[in-house]
């Protein structure tokens, strides 16, 4: 199976005060589609029995039009490349008229659960995914540049933030980043593009600082984000959000 599609009807609980799909809800739908595709290739339980798992390393997402409650969308996904420990997965989001309204690229790392380190993707698994050489984005943002953070908000990790891997779910990081954006920007602009790279897992009970700094990229409202452990000062994730 080279490409995989899944249909959704947007529920009210997935939307914001304007009845538009929340960015975090979109990540959940993309994740569900990805999981079903992977499960159709090889059962996730079979991988877990072998102590293998896919770990998400980064997102890059563009949303041109937010669907509203009760509207239907189709999400299409495929594996675009596999190299040693890494796999790239792409997404296209279609509206009810089958027009593309969003896209995403992701990078995943194949890991040994017990040893908590990358492991080479088995050849039979590479073949099973049937790579399609098509990219939603040409590249990812280079986060090596050091940017000073202007302001932080503190968040205490809740039980509801923890997923089945016993660490903070990847979508929660986006929530923290959005919450740090100034109210004036949030009310006057829409989040159209964002990128997150994950550095280290966060556990229940930790307190994190969600920091941001406004930067200038092509005269757009752009924020650089950092998610830092308040006690250790370790950087757990970095991100970029673009508001239009």
Which CATH C-level class of the largest domain is it?
A: Alpha Beta
The helix/strand order is EHHEEEEEHEHHEEEE
* Radius of gyration over C-alpha positions, nearest whole angstrom: 18 Å
Secondary structure tally: strands: 11
What fold name goes in the CATH topology slot of the largest domain? Thiol Ester Dehydrase, Chain A
Beta content: 35-45%
Figure out the total of helices. Answer: 5
Ranges with pLDDT <50 over ≥5 residues? none
Please estimate the helix content.
10-25%
Number of domain units: 2
CATH superfamily of the largest domain: Hotdog Thioesterase
Secondary-structure-based class equals alpha+beta
Oligomer: single chain
Please describe what this structure looks like:
With 244 residues, the chain is of the alpha+beta class. It folds into two domains: 3-129, Thiol Ester Dehydrase, Chain A; 151-243, Roll (Thiol Ester Dehydrase, Chain A), CATH 3.10.129.10. It is 20% helix and 41% strand. The radius of gyration is 18 Å and the shape is globular.
Question: How do you describe this structure in short?
Answer:
By secondary structure, the chain is an alpha+beta fold.
